[in-house]
Amino acid sequence: MTQPNAHELLEIARATLLEQLLPALPGELRYPALMIANAMAIAARENRLGAQAEDQEQARLAALVDDAPSTLPDLRRQLARAIRQGSHDAPQTRRTLVETLRQITVARLAISNPKALP
Fold first, then answer.
1. Is pTM beyond 0.85 here?
2. C-alpha–C-alpha distance, residues 110 and 99, integer Å
3. C-beta contacts of 109-116 below 8 A and 24+ residues apart
4. How far apart are the two ends of the chain, measured CA to CA in Å?
5. Domain DUF6285: where (predicted)?
6. Domains of the chain: total
7. Measured between alpha carbons, how far is 31 from 27 in angstroms, rounded to an integer?
8. Is there a domain that residue 29 lies in?
């Protein structure tokens, strides 16, 4: 049998916190415990989905910039510069940009706040 990985450990710890510890906590500690549980859920999703989301973002942003830098932060900076310079103002280019940014946002939201997704 294999050991649980990081996101599975976080999910197990979160379930234990919510199911066993939270009911026994006094009222003033319930909110901080729920915040901890929420942070654990985000960390588990980040561990499970984060690398894939970043790889997809990097590929999507590279398709939007002329001289694709090698790192995601460089791609973000280059795209921001291109937007400021008006490189994506043409209607078709703007539609592609908006759709790309929408896809990136949805992928990041699936990690940070999946309840906000339609």
1. no
2. 16
3. 110/45, 110/49, 110/53, 111/42, 111/45, 111/46, 111/49, 111/50, 111/53, 112/42, 112/45, 114/45
4. 37
5. 23-115
6. 1
7. 8
8. yes
SS3 2: coil
Residue (of 105, 89, 104, 92) closest to 58 by Cα position = 104
CB distance 15 to 33 below 8 Å: no
Amino acid at 48: R
Position 1 scores a pLDDT of: 66
Query: What amino acid occupies position 49?
Result: L
State residue 4's pLDDT score. 85
DSSP 8-state symbol, 17: I
Residue 1 within any structural domain of the chain: no
